[in-house]
Write a structure and sequence with these properties.
By secondary structure, the protein is mainly alpha-helical. It is built from three helices and no strands. The radius of gyration is 14 Å and the shape is elongated.
Length: about 60
């Protein structure tokens, strides 16, 4: 992979993660406002890759405070 290809890949990964994190924060807010159930939130988490799910759970735990 060329240097520009590596940089493009990094940018794509960052954009994907930022979009996923924004969606996670939105879903957490919906859950806290009781607009979605815990079961719905858990179902969405299970649809993510194992690594993403672990990271998202850590974010949720931090927001739970």
């Amino acid at each position: 992979m060329t240097e520009s290809g590596v940089e493009q890949h990094k940018a794509e990964c960052l954009a994907r993660w930022q979009a996923l994190e924004a969606e996670a924060r939105q879903r957490w807010a919906q859950y806290r406002r009781k607009r979605i159930t815990r079961q719905t939130l858990e179902g969405w988490l299970k649809q993510q890759s194992e690594m993403d799910e672990r990271t998202l759970r850590a974010i949720f735990n931090a927001m739970r405070g």
